[in-house]
Amino acid sequence: MPMHNNVTEFILLGLTQDPFKKKILLVFFLFFYLGTLLGNLLIIVTIKTSRALGSPMYFFLFYLSLSDTCFSTTISPRMIVDTILKNNTISFSECIIQVFTFHFFGCLEIFILILMAADRYVAICKPLHYMTIMSRRVCTVLVAIAWVGSCVHSLTQIFLTLSLPFCGPNVIDHYFCDLQPLLKLACADTYVINLLLVSNSGAICTVSFVMLMFSYVIILHSLRNHSAEGRKKALSTCISHIIVVILFFGPCIFIYTRPATTFPMDKLIAVFYTIGTPLLNPLIYTLRNAEVKNAMKKLWSKKVISEDQR
Predict the structure, then answer these.
(1) Which of 14, 99, 116, 140 is least enclosed by beta carbons within 10 angstroms?
(2) Neighbouring-strand partners of residue 70
(3) Rounded mean pLDDT of the chain?
(4) How far apart are CA 160 and CA 141, in angstroms?
(5) Is 263 buried (19+), middle (13-18) or exposed (0-12) by CB count in 10 A?
(6) Rounded CA gap, 45 and 42, in Å?
(7) Which of 147, 123, 135 is CA-nearest to residue 63?
(8) What is the pLDDT of residues 153-167, one digit of tens each?
(9) Residue 168 Ramachandran class (φ > 0 left, ψ -120 to 50 alpha, else beta)
(10) What contacts 24+ positions apart, CB below 8 Å, involve 19-23?
(11) 295, 50 in Cβ contact below 8 A?
């Protein structure tokens, strides 16, 4: 922590101060978080235990579910506790850690989505060379690069934030520590720092979104040369990926590509991509994927049979 900081803790205003609304939010957040954990952990266990899901696509889906679980866990448990407590305070160090983990797993999800798009491109446009290009070793290296890149991104955010002095006030008009509301509390000119932060997060979100959309346009265009059955299967997978990309990137681009201004709707939009998207991802990938559903059914059947034999 910088020596010129007088602030040792922050007060989170949350979504509301009304006791009755807090109880409703408690049920809402708890339901969504448990659903996120259940859905993503089910995908993780299914992929790890099923031999049928050994392709690179499911290798990346495993890490997408893992990043979703960790991404939600950086925010949801704290939100649930804050709906019960009267004084929602968070220490300076905890706030910085939350900013780091939130951006780390959010950036990791972006990179994993890019890898999934690259996997689909190779599978559909270069089918004869698919197993050579997307070997397990290559996939492992790509995921490792995604982890390192996410770490570099988050450390950059943290170093820029810690370069600012915080001498009061210490009230954050949000339900978690994020860069924009945090910058408003710095007792210094934050124009340059904000520009660097926006160019970092905003550039990653915007460039990645454009790359993903462009890649899926190429993929969908190349499906014209495939058989009806192959086109239907590939189209189903790609549409699932496109839905996830739009749901995740839409709110992120809105939040992180603007100057240091906040709107009343920001917190509601943040709820969507911090709480809603991690829950929707496993639903989209399981409901639209026959292989995952079949693997889950076999996993459940084995569990029931093993329990009956005891």
Answers:
(1) 140
(2) none
(3) 84
(4) 29
(5) exposed
(6) 5
(7) 147
(8) 999 989 888 888 888
(9) left
(10) 22/83, 22/84, 23/83
(11) yes
pTM for the structure as a whole: 0.87
Measure the CA–CA gap between 124 and 155, rounded to whole angstroms.
Answer: 36
According to DSSP H, which parts of 50-175 are helical?
Answer: 56-73, 76-82, 92-125, 130-133, 136-162
Residue found by looking up tokens 């917190």 in the block: 267
Each domain of the chain, given as residue ranges in start order, spans 9-308
Amino acid at 198: V
With vertex at residue 169, the alpha carbon angle to CA 165 and CA 174, rounded to the nearest 5 degrees, is 100
Cα angle 18, 21, 27 (rounded to 5 degrees) comes to 140
d(CA 106, CA 248): 9
Q: What is the assigned CATH class of domain 9-308?
A: mainly alpha
Question: CA–CA distance from 169 to each of 9, 99, 164 (Å)?
Answer: 10, 19, 14
**pLDDT tens by residue, 71-110:** 999 999 988 888 888 778 889 899 999 999 999 999 999 9
Strand 171-172 vs strand 89-91: parallel, antiparallel, or unpaired?
A: unpaired
Report DSSP state, residue 224.
G
SS3 12: strand
Query: Pick from 88, 94, 112: which is nearest to 244 by CA?
Result: 112
Task: Look up residue 108 and give its amino acid.
Answer: L
Q: Give the largest Cα separation in the chain, rounded.
A: 69
pLDDT tens string 19-54? 888 889 899 999 999 999 998 998 898 888 887 788
Return the minimum-mean-pLDDT range out of 58-62, 102-106, 108-112, 239-243: 239-243
Phi, psi of 111 (to 5 degrees): -65, -35
Cα gap 113→120, rounded to integer Å: 11
> What are 239-242's contacts with CB under 8 Å, separation 24+?
239/288, 240/284, 240/285, 240/288, 240/289, 241/113, 241/116, 241/117, 241/120, 241/216, 242/213, 242/216
